[in-house]
Write a structure and sequence with these properties.
Oligomer: single chain
Shape: flat
Distance between the termini: 36 Å
Function: Catalyzes the reductive methylation of 2'-deoxyuridine-5'-monophosphate (dUMP) to 2'-deoxythymidine-5'-monophosphate (dTMP) while utilizing 5,10-methylenetetrahydrofolate (mTHF) as the methyl donor, and NADPH and FADH(2) as the reductant.
CATH architecture of the largest domain: 2-Layer Sandwich
Order of helices and strands: HHEEHHEHEEEHHEHHHHHH
GO biological process, one term: dTMP biosynthetic process
Helix content: 40-55%
Cofactor: FAD
CATH topology of the largest domain: Gyrase A, domain 2
Structural class: alpha+beta
Strand content: 5-15%
Keywords: FAD, Flavoprotein, Methyltransferase, NADP, Nucleotide biosynthesis, Transferase
GO molecular function, one term: thymidylate synthase activity
Number of domains: 3
Radius of gyration: 24 Å
Largest sheet: 5 strands, antiparallel
């Protein structure tokens, strides 16, 4: 993980000068403020600011009750009800602002979640650092034979070494050419906004990402899932740990009703009912495609 000296100085300054506030704070989140959580080889996630806690969700749901009930159990029960029945608005009352350092190809997946406010480091004005994501050997994998979007088994031995050497060499060569093209030392050179197009997608970028809790949980449901690409999943896993400390009741409900739950089609429900009654059901009698049947079997057999 690489923080610049300026970023480290900013963190030290912020943590050494706490401010009193009249607003509600989450004790679990306070310990995460400004700390950088390492992700991948050079990346990180750090909390810059946040608003709200579990009580804020309940307050929004009840509106006229002020802070809510005095019973923690009642508050958690309400949060579970809201999560179970897909009531999203109360969760939007909590927000978080993150500073994230991540490879460009991960950022391009991440930005598909269009419900956040984003401000990214600009390579039009600044020169990007010489930092690239190079996968660990165990994360060098072949193309999946059954999923065009996924990985198969890990490459091993000489093949893994060959691929890693290509990634390292191409990254270094691209950055060398990037530097050579940029105007410096009296040379006219190429504009930064044009020179950046020669950089590979594994170079690191940074951004501030601000999002409400409802949309953050949607992001985590997709990106912390076992089927998500490893490189974005590790960022989602790091954020999950933060959210679990920030809004523990909401996160427990999220684990139960989103992460630990499954969604079945009407056909799947019908097949399950037939199986419970003792009927033998296979793909031919299920009415499902081969892929749907495989997913259904994974649900009930795991």
């Amino acid at each position: 993980m690489s923080l610049t000296p300026e970023q480290n100085a900013e963190i030290d300054e912020l943590r050494s000068n706490p401010s009193e506030t009249l607003r509600v704070v989450s004790e679990g989140m306070e310990k995460h403020l400004y700390h950088a959580i390492p992700v991948l080889d050079h990346g990180f996630v750090r909390v810059i600011d946040y608003m709200g806690d579990d009580a804020a969700i309940c307050q929004a749901a009840r509106v006229s009750y002020g802070k809510g009930t005095k019973s923690v159990q009642n508050d958690e029960g309400l949060i579970r009800y809201l999560m179970r029945h897909w009531h999203s608005t109360p969760f939007e009352m909590c927000e978080i602002k993150l500073h994230v350092k991540l490879p460009v190809f991960v950022a391009r997946q991440w930005i598909r979640h269009r419900t956040a406010n984003v401000n990214e480091y600009s390579a039009r004005y600044s020169i990007l650092d010489r930092e690239f994501y190079i996968p660990a050997p165990e994360n060098i994998a072949a193309q999946s034979a059954v999923n065009n979007q996924g990985r198969g088994g890990a490459l091993e031995g000489e093949e893994a070494a060959r691929v890693l050497e290509i990634l390292k060499a191409d990254s270094a060569r691209s950055y060398d050419n990037y530097q050579a093209m940029i105007s410096q030392d009296g040379q006219e050179g190429l504009a930064r906004e044009l020179a950046r197009m020669n950089l590979p997608a594994n170079i690191y970028t940074q951004w501030y990402w601000k999002v409400d809790l409802h949309n953050l949980l949607h992001f985590l449901r997709l990106r912390a899932d076992a089927h998500a690409q490893y490189e974005i999943r590790v960022y989602a896993d790091a954020i999950c740990n933060v959210v679990a400390d920030w809004v523990p009741a909401a996160y427990r409900a999220f684990e139960d009703y989103r992460m630990g739950a499954v969604t079945m089609s009407a056909q799947m429900v019908d097949c399950l009912r037939r199986m419970i009654k003792g009927e033998t059901v296979d793909q031919d009698t299920s009415g499902m495609s081969a892929r749907e049947w495989r997913e259904f079997k994974e649900m009930i057999d795991s």
